[in-house]
Design brief:
CAAX prenyl protease 2/Lysostaphin resistance protein A-like domain-containing protein; 68% helix; 277 residues; mainly alpha; 2 strands; globular; 10 helices
Length: 277
């Protein structure tokens, strides 16, 4: 299949993410469906996987109309659906390998990157049914937001001190596809799931800080493929992203913190880690 045709899948999916982020639900869902149809034509998704994806969207769309007990069950099913997509457990979805064993710089370890079809669908579905996803927009507290930004900066310094990364100021030729992919298909999906959905949902049940800590731990565990050190770093980063969401009452602020942290890592340091001789 022609790669240019395949890229239409993520063009349509990116449009859907942008539209849904600006609360244009009908247009956003139209482009989600367009993306899935294009993916099916390009053999990037099977009919069974597409039906499972559409089932998740149907459950999400029905949730606001359901009675309390049925709605709770529907949320449980939707959460399992989100986890399956996040962990790439849904058979029949083939993500596109866009960068294979490239180096961000001479001191950087090899890096591969996929355009994910499954993970962004999480945000699209949650945008349909979860009213709290984008935050209330009622508060914007500068001091804790600055504290969270400072904490993320210190994390890069700690990683440097531990030898995981080293300073390497440069941008690889593929920085733009990294930025688009990271922003639209990674940061928005992850912040929607862990901050807008899990943290905000738990906050109403167990309170802010337990909810923030649990969401951050779950976020850290989702990085298990990188080993215990990455789990620890992702957990701490999750705390700062959670603070960004809580003290701004805006999902886009948490997304911006997440994206800028990742892009700063790429621009100022070896990415994803340093080559060790």
């Amino acid at each position: 299949m022609n790669t240019h045709i395949e890229l239409l899948i993520w063009f349509f999916l990116g449009l859907s993410v942008i539209l849904l982020f600006f609360h244009r639900k009908k247009e956003g869902i139209f482009f989600v469906i367009t993306s899935l149809v294009t993916a099916f034509i390009a053999d990037r998704i099977t009919i069974s996987a597409a039906l499972l994806v559409l089932l998740g969207f149907a459950i999400a769309a029905s949730i606001p109309k359901l009675q309390f007990h049925i709605r709770t069950l529907a949320y449980a099913v939707l959460t399992a659906w989100c986890v399956a997509l996040y962990e790439h457990w849904v058979p029949g979805i083939s993500n596109l390998l866009i960068l294979k064993s490239v180096h961000a710089g001479p001191q950087s370890a090899p890096f591969s990157m996929y355009l994910n079809l499954d993970k962004p669908l999480i945000f699209c579905a949650l945008a349909v049914c979860w009213a709290k996803l984008f935050g209330s927009g009622k508060t914007f507290r500068i001091r804790p937001l600055l504290a969270a930004a400072t904490g993320l900066f210190c994390m890069l310094m700690v990683a440097w001190a531990l030898g995981s990364i080293r300073p390497e100021i440069m941008l690889p030729s593929w920085w733009w596809i990294f930025a688009l992919n990271n922003l639209l298909f990674t940061c928005i999906a992850e912040e929607a799931l862990y901050r807008g959905y899990i943290q905000e949902g738990l906050k109403g049940i167990i309170g802010l800080w337990p909810a923030l800590i649990i969401a951050s731990i779950l976020f850290g565990i989702s990085h298990y493929h990188g080993g215990i050190l990455l789990i620890a770093f992702a957990t701490v980063a999750g705390l700062f992203y959670g603070m960004a969401f809580q003290y701004s009452s805006r999902l886009w602020v948490a997304v911006l913190y997440h994206f800028l942290f990742n892009f700063s890592h790429l621009f100022f340091f070896t990415y994803p880690s340093a080559i060790h001789s």
